[in-house]
Amino acid sequence: MQMLAKLQEAAGRIKHDTLTIYFAARDPRTPRAVRLSALLVAAYALSPIDLIPDFVPVLGYLDDLILIPLGVLLIIKLTPDAVIADSRKRARQVTVRPTSNAAAIAIVVIWVLCASGLTYWLLRASGT
Questions:
Q1: DSSP per-residue letters across the chain
Q2: What's the CA dihedral at 72, 77, 81, 83 to 10 degrees?
Q3: Is the domain of 48 the same as that of 75?
Q4: Residues 34 and 69 in one domain
Q5: What is the pLDDT of residues 17-72, one digit of tens each?
Q6: Within this chain, do residues 114 and 86 fall inside the same structural domain, yes or no?
Q7: Contact at 8 Å (CB) between 27 and 86?
Q8: Residue whose C-alpha is closest to residue 32's, from 40, 43, 123, 93
Q9: Range 104-113, long-range pairs (CB < 8 A, 24+ positions)
Q10: Are residues 28 and 91 in the same domain?
């Protein structure tokens, strides 16, 4: 279980860092070559198309586990510190989702009503 938690945490960091370099690429203070590289790394990280398809045993996930973190690290090292700090702050703001208990309750009520309606319809259709 602890290994799964560590993997989920690492995936969350990679997702956050990918978003960070995306915002850094859009910042005019970032050098042009770094901006282009950042966009390529972010596009590769978010793209469903991989260099090595995921269905290839071991190697399929190896490119995601090595190429993306290395690309992210390279972009972070080449980007000015102020830009990275601003981009991380922006990425944090985007990933924080507001929660609404009222909306959650409304969605649960809708699902319960739908399930009840479907059950009623199925019972009625079967003649019971």
A1: -HHHHHHHHHHHHHHHHHHHHHHHHT-TTS-HHHHHHHHHHHHHHH-S--SS-TTSTTHHHHHHHHHHHHHHHHHHHHS-HHHHHHHHHHHHHHHPPP--HHHHHHHHHHHHHHHHHHHHHHHHHHT-
A2: -40
A3: yes
A4: yes
A5: 888 998 999 999 999 999 999 888 888 877 777 777 767 777 777 777 788 888 88
A6: no
A7: yes
A8: 40
A9: none
A10: yes
Q: Which domain holds residue 65?
A: 6-97
**Quick one: 39 and 69 in the same domain?**
yes
pLDDT tens across 76-127, in order?
A: 999 999 999 999 999 988 877 666 778 778 888 999 998 999 999 999 888 7
Same domain, 126 and 72: no
Tell whether 1 is covered by a domain: no
Whole-angstrom CA distances from 48 to 23, 27, 69, 74 are 20, 25, 17, 22
Q: Are 84 and 30 in contact (CB under 8 A)?
A: no
For residue 11, the Cα-to-chain-centroid distance in whole angstroms is 8
